[in-house]
Automatic annotation (TrEMBL):
Ranges of biased composition (kind: Low complexity): 465-483
Organism listed in the record: Pseudomonas rhizophila
Similarity comment: Belongs to the alanine or glycine:cation symporter (AGCS) (TC 2.A.25) family.
Cross-referenced InterPro entries: Na/Ala_symport
Principal location listed in the UniProt entry: membrane
Source superkingdom: Bacteria
Name of the protein: Alanine:cation symporter family protein
Annotated compartments: Cell inner membrane; Cell membrane
Presence of the UniProt keyword Transport in the record: yes
Length: 483
């Protein structure tokens, strides 16, 4: 029954929602992800600046990449290629292109409607912009519950299962002991709260990402003469034009979209939870940088994995096996047995940081539901650690099917909320664009311009410090902004 429901939701509903509404957001915003593409790099540079007592935009980016760059980039891509052929990679790209727009708006809104908690830290996400933007707390509660179940519980167990079984295959480690070790290490980070999670992500995310990209690019460079032909195969297979994969066009679309969403999470409502914790001058700045993280996740890391598999010569149409084994064997076919070890180590780092991200998503939405209740929070941490250990030693196939269903429901609720709040998103985007057009290098958000919105004035004060215009571009618009 779960499989039938899952096939309908993820095979039909999810495609229409992600691609359809993502395309709508893209067109209505005049292709915001393309217009601001090169600006993303400037915002990324500025994100390195920190604000006293708050998380920086760079730390929020590392947190989001901790979640986006996970098992889906290794195992998920392998599954997509296995079941959908090379054409699935093309549809992952399409999902990411439109997903950049969805991620831009959901993270901008997450910033806009964030709240300052009793400890002086920012919190936000879909539940917050649904409650304060749509004035529908009941729907925000549903969203919070779905995020808690999907990320806080189900995905953590699945991630633990992936890493412990990968280590067992590569090193022969007993899953019971690795499960205990994983739970202990994670517990030590959990008790430090969002600041400790951010510090660990700051350290591990760049290391795991650069190491993985470096090794996969090395393999791609070794066979660079085959890359143009393989890219042609990917595009032709996506439309059923390659004879070897002609019968997989339907599977290519479904698996490409499904695994693409699982990998980059654009539109699911997960990234706004961590995007909201950053201290930024304007909500749109965080939307820009989170769109950039979707690009990094799919176009760089997922593409590296896909080309690693397809160029290795190990993959053949009709391959039977799991995605992790396919990626491990593909790398080993080119560089030797150390390739299997490297994938296991990389997967361990990917999963560790992803679980930290998933845990925070669950905690953030639990706080939205019950408030600052310390006993409930301790109970949540304990249950998460138990599920991590359980997932490490048990096959959670049923849980995975259930998580796919709740993930699709998340996308449904979140994307409908984004559609209803789209005009608000466009208003703050125009405010940001107008300031940039006026020569202001770092646009500043003035909440007094939006008196009709239910905003936290501690997070977004009225009449903030005056923005600075670029030299030689002073104008009446700048003068007005400075007044």
């Amino acid at each position: 029954m779960l499989e039938v429901i899952n096939d309908f939701l993820s095979g039909k509903v999810l495609i229409v929602l992600i691609v359809g509404l993502g395309s709508y957001f893209t067109i209505r915003s005049r292709f915001v992800q393309f217009r601001h593409f090169f600006h993303m790099f400037a915002v990324f540079r500025d994100s390195l600046k920190s604000s006293a007592g708050q998380l920086s935009s760079f730390q929020a980016l590392m947190l989001s990449l901790a979640g986006r760059v996970g098992a889906g980039n290794i195992a998920g891509v392998g599954i997509a290629v296995t079941l959908g052929g090379p054409g699935a990679v093309f549809w992952m790209w399409v999902t990411a292109l439109v997903g950049m727009s969805s991620s831009f708006f959901e993270c901008s809104l997450g910033q806009l409607y964030k709240r300052c908690d009793a400890e002086g830290q920012f919190r936000g996400g879909p539940s917050y912009y649904i409650q304060h933007g749509l004035q529908k707390r009941w729907l925000g509660m549903i969203m919070a519950f779905l995020l808690l179940i999907t990320f806080g519980f189900a995905f953590n167990g699945l991630q633990a299962h992936a890493v412990t079984h990968s280590l067992n295959n590569a090193f022969g480690f007993d899953t019971t002991y690795t499960g205990i070790g994983l739970a202990v290490l994670l517990g030590l980070v959990f008790i430090g709260g969002i600041k400790r999670i951010a510090k660990v992500a700051d350290l591990l995310v760049p290391v795991k990402t650069l190491a993985y990209i470096g090794v996969t690019l090395y393999v791609i460079v070794l066979q660079f003469d085959q890359v143009p032909a393989m890219l042609t195969t990917i595009v032709k297979s996506a439309f059923g034009l390659d004879q070897a994969f002609g019968g997989l066009i339907g599977s290519a679309i479904v698996m490409g979209v499904k695994r693409g969403v699982f990998a980059n999470e654009a539109g699911l409502g997960s990234a706004p939870n961590v995007a909201a914790v950053a201290s930024v001058e304007h909500p749109v700045a965080q939307g820009v940088i989170q769109a950039f993280s979707v690009f990094l996740d799919t176009f760089l890391i997922c593409t590296c994995t896909a080309l690693l598999i397809l160029l290795s010569g190990f993959y053949t149409p009709g391959f039977e096996g799991d995605g992790i084994a396919l990626t491990q064997n593909s790398l080993a076919a080119v560089v030797g047995d150390w390739g299997r070890v490297f994938i296991s180590v990389a997967l361990s780092l990917f999963v560790f940081t992803s679980i930290l991200y998933n845990y925070y998503l669950g905690e953030n939405n639990l706080r939205f539901m019950v408030g600052e209740n310390r006993k409930v929070l301790i109970g949540y941490r304990t249950l998460v650690l138990v599920l991590i250990f359980w997932g490490a030693i048990e096959n959670l196939g049923t849980v995975f099917a259930f998580a796919d269903i709740t993930m699709t429901l998340l996308a449904f609720v979140n994307l409908i909320a984004l559609f209803l709040l789209f005009k608000v998103g466009m208003r703050i985007l125009r405010d940001y664009d107008d300031q940039r057009s006026a020569g202001i290098k770092v646009p500043v958000f003035d909440s007094s311009k939006f008196p009709d919105l239910d905003l936290d004035r501690k997070a977004w004060p009225a009449n903030p410090s005056a923005p600075v215009a670029a030299p030689g571009k002073a104008s009446a618009g700048v003068a007005a902004a400075q007044r």
